[in-house]
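Human: Here is a favour to ask of a fellow structure person. Comparing notes only helps if you start from a blank page. I am asking you to supply a protein in sequence and C-alpha cell form. Write it directly below this note and I will take it from there.

Assistant:
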Amino acid sequence: MDALLERLRAGLPAEALITDPDVTASYAHDMASFCDAGTPAVVVLPRSVEEVQHVMRTATALRVPVVPQGARTGLSGAANASDGCIVLSLVKMDRILEISPVDRIAVVEPGVVNATLSRAVGELGLYYPPDPSSWEMCTIGGNIGTASGGLCCVKYGVTAEYVLGLEVVLADGRLLNTGRRTAKGVAGYDLTRLFVGSEGSLGIVVKAVLALRPRPPQQLALAAEFPSAAAACDAVCRIMERGHTPSLLELMDRTTVRAVNAMASMGLPESTEALLLCAFDTPDPAADLAAVGELCKASGATEVVPADDVAESELLLQARRSALPALETVKSATMIDDVCVPRSRLGAMIEGTAAIAEKFGLTIGVCAHAGDGNTHPVVCFDHTDPDESRRARASFDEIMALGLELGGTITGEHGVGVLKKEWLARELGEVGIELQRGIKSAFDPLGLLNPGKLF
C-alpha cells in the first residue's frame, strides 16, 4: 500500500488521490443489486491523459488491478471495486474539446455528462441522439463502456453507432488511437467498436470522437391505452411492419404506470393494462401520429390521446423517464433486468415475465423500449427479507432464460458486469467465450483491467 501511494504521488497532484476509507467506500459500487464489491486501496481522479498513463504504468509495475469508473449509474456491477484495487474515476476529465458543425463531430473527454453534451451541440443546431434514462448524470465514457442505449434507439440507434474514434490508454500505459474523424473509413480491424461495450476491460477511454446529426424538429407524442400487454405489443408490430419510423416507441405496464402516478402524480390512466407512448420528429408529426393512432385502435386500444403541443409531449416522455425511479419506491430494493428480444416476440416476453412474477409472488414492473424489443423488467423486493431476496434473484434468472428462449439477448444496453457473467457464457457458448478471453489477454495480458467482470 505504501509503495503504491508513493509511486502514484510521484506523478499525480495531491488532490487527485483519495485514501480516506470512508470516502473510498462510496466509490466501491454502481447501482446494481446482488453484485459483490471489494474495498479499493485508493481512488484516483485524473484530469489529463498523462495522469491516466501514470496510473496504468504504476499499476502494471506493481501488479495492482484497476477499475475504471464514470458516474456509477450502471446497473450490472461493471464499475464495482475489487479488493486492493485502484479505482480510476474519470469524472474530472469533463471537457468538450471540439464541436464541428461542418464535420458533424464532437470530441470529448470521458467525464462529460450526456445531457451536457446534448445541450451544447443543440445550441449549434446539432444533435447527439443516445439518451439513456440517466442522461442527466451518466457520462460519455460510461456510455461507451456499456454500449448504452436510450429512448431514441428505435430511430437513431445506440451509442456504438456514434463513436467514430477513441483515444485509449492501454494496460501498460501506452496510448492507442483508433478509428477516424472522417465520414467514411475502413482501414484495418474496427478496434473502436471492440472498445465500445468492453466495460473497461481492454483499456481506459480518455477521448472520444462522436458523430452528430442535424437537430431534428421537436417531436410530438401520443399515448395509447390498451386492455392487455399483448394488444399493445401487437400495435408495436403493426407500426413497424407498416414502415413507420417513430423517434420513440415506449411501453409501460400497469404496475409501472401506477408506480409513476404514485410517485409523481402525473395523471396517467391507472385503468390501463399497458400504456404505449409513440413520438415522431418528422416534418409533419401530427399526420404520422394520426396514422399510428389508427393502428393502435386496430390492435384494440381503448383510448388514443395525441399531445397538443411540445410541452404536453415532453410531459409524456417525462413519465417514461420516471419509470425506473418510480418502481424503486415500490419496495426497498430493485433488480433491473435488460433483456432484448425480436420485436415479434415482445408480447411473449412481457406475458412470460408476468407469469414469472406470479410464480414467485413478486411485484415485477415492465417498461420497455418497445420499438427495438428491449425490455426492462424491474423486480421489486424487500432486501431485508432473505426469502424474498432469494425469490427476486431466482425470478431475475428466469427472465433472462426466457429472453434467450425467445431468441433474444441477456443485455440490450446495460452490460454484463458482475451480474450476468454466468449468462454471458450461456449466450456466447464455449467457443465464443474462448475467443473473447483471447481478445482480453491480447490487450491486458496481466489481467489488471476491471478483473472479475464479463467472464
